[in-house]
Amino acid sequence: MDRRVRLSGRLVTAAVALALLATACTPAGEEPQEAPRPRISITPAPGESGVAPNTPVRVAVEDGVLTDVTVEQAGREQWAAAEEEAPGRAPVAGTLAEDGSAWVSDRNLAPGGRVAVYATARGADGEHTEVVSSFATHGVAKDARLAAPLVLPQDGQTVGVGMPVVVTFEEPVEHREQVENSMHVTSEKPTEGAWNWVDETTAVFRPREYWEPHQKVVVDLRLTGVEAADGVFGTADERIGFEVDRELVATMHVPDHRMDVEVDGEQVRSIPVSNGKGERRFNTTTSGVHVLMEKYSRLVMDSSTVGIPEGSAGYYRLDVDWAVRTSDSGEFAHAAPWNGSIGHANRSNGCTNMSVADARWFHDNTLTGDVLETTGTGRDLEWDNGWGFYQRSWEAWLEHSETGAPQDTAAGSPPPGGVHGDDL
């Protein structure tokens, strides 16, 4: 017999044996069981309308693992007064559970729009199941839209290492934790920071320590869909970027009558000064960390603006040159050619007096956000006096944050808490 025929016969016999073995493993009268298909559920429910924009999108799966979730927003913004075409919006990002069983959105939704959710899951047999669901969010009347806040620093501004991020809203913010978690700060040299509220409209972000110099910082106000107060929703996001320049820190021990200025750790100038007389609280220079706020080449200083009206003891009205504000209680570093005690004695009403040449140098070479550290007086700078935010210890700063936790400024870091409404 031909060898190829014998080999072929062996292969046939082997195939028959395997078939019989397979049949023997299956009980008589039963078909092989198929793996269950993944069952995907999505909330809000399909077809639902009038959904609150700060409702989280949730996707869950049984008998499988989620492999992809995409949430897209489209359609018209349905305002009370009129319908307007909504701009295109990026897909809503979310977080997938480690075991692939659930996904939840990280951002709020645009008011008055249609939302489509595409979810894909893989079953035990490797086959994929896809589900598509859609729903609509409710619109927001024009008088219930959160107005764009004022942000400092301004976009593109160059600042010093002590610069805070100050966000001032037009309306009182009631749901502060949601708002805090929707405002992200990202820096090229990551650190940790946190928000505090000076009052019901003003939120302040500061890093744990001063910013590292020579870097860019971006502030993303992801306020679309955020319910800042009952029935008041954000309808737009905003991004501002600023640059932290060299590290300029001035130090001043008031009894020594001098201010030393360092740039990136090197002393660049030692300035004779005269500070507050310290006879009363109002003319005592404050000790603490002052962040430089604003500068004027010429300024009228009127004590009535800080609670000392004309006709009362201590009233003054002066024209000063080269003034740099260090607090909200009337303190400036400025030129005082009339003060013959500069470098020898403290004779001012609480400001830091300098010669004209030194005051102009200080004015011209400092930035908003540079730092003046003052010691040696009997009055401490209040944390909310100007930008005295470093007067709070880091532990106290976290305690006064609505989230109670730091925010990592590394790119892509999640907020310390949720952005969605309570009980949604």
Nearest-angstrom radius of gyration?
Answer: 32 Å
**Which percent band covers the strand fraction?**
35-45%
Distance between the termini: 81 Å
The average pLDDT score comes to 90
- Overall shape: it is elongated
**In this structure, how is the largest beta sheet organized?**
5 strands, antiparallel
Please state the structural category.
mainly beta
Unreliable segments of 5+ consecutive residues: 1-26, 76-88
The portion of residues assigned to helices is 10-25%
Number of strands: 29
Strand order of the largest sheet: 10-12-15-14-29
Number of helices: 4
Descriptive account of the structure:
By secondary structure, the chain is mainly β. 11% of the residues lie in helices and 35% in strands. It has a five-stranded antiparallel beta sheet with strand order 10-12-15-14-29, with no helix packed on it. It has a five-stranded mixed beta sheet with strand order 22-21-20-28-23, with no helix packed on it. A hairpin with a 5-residue loop joins strand 6 (94-96) and strand 7. The longest helix is centred in the N-terminal third of the chain and has 23 residues, at 3-25. The chain is elongated.
Question: Brief description of this entry?
Answer:
This protein has 424 residues and is mainly beta. 11% of the residues lie in helices and 35% in strands.
Secondary structure elements and their pairing?
Blueprint: H1 3-25, E1 39-43, E2 58-62, E3 65-74, E4 76-78, E5 83-85, E6 94-96, E7 102-105, E8 114-122, E9 128-136, E10 150-152, E11 158-159, E12 165-168, H2 176-181, E13 183-187, E14 192-197, E15 202-207, E16 215-221, E17 227-229, E18 232-233, E19 238-244, E20 248-253, E21 258-263, E22 266-272, E23 288-291, E24 295-302, E25 317-325, E26 332-335, E27 352-354, H3 356-365, E28 371-375, H4 394-399, E29 407-408
Parallel strand pairs: 11-19, 20-28, 26-27
Antiparallel strand pairs: 1-2, 2-7, 3-8, 4-5, 6-7, 8-9, 10-12, 12-15, 13-16, 14-15, 14-29, 16-19, 17-18, 20-21, 21-22, 23-28, 24-25, 25-26
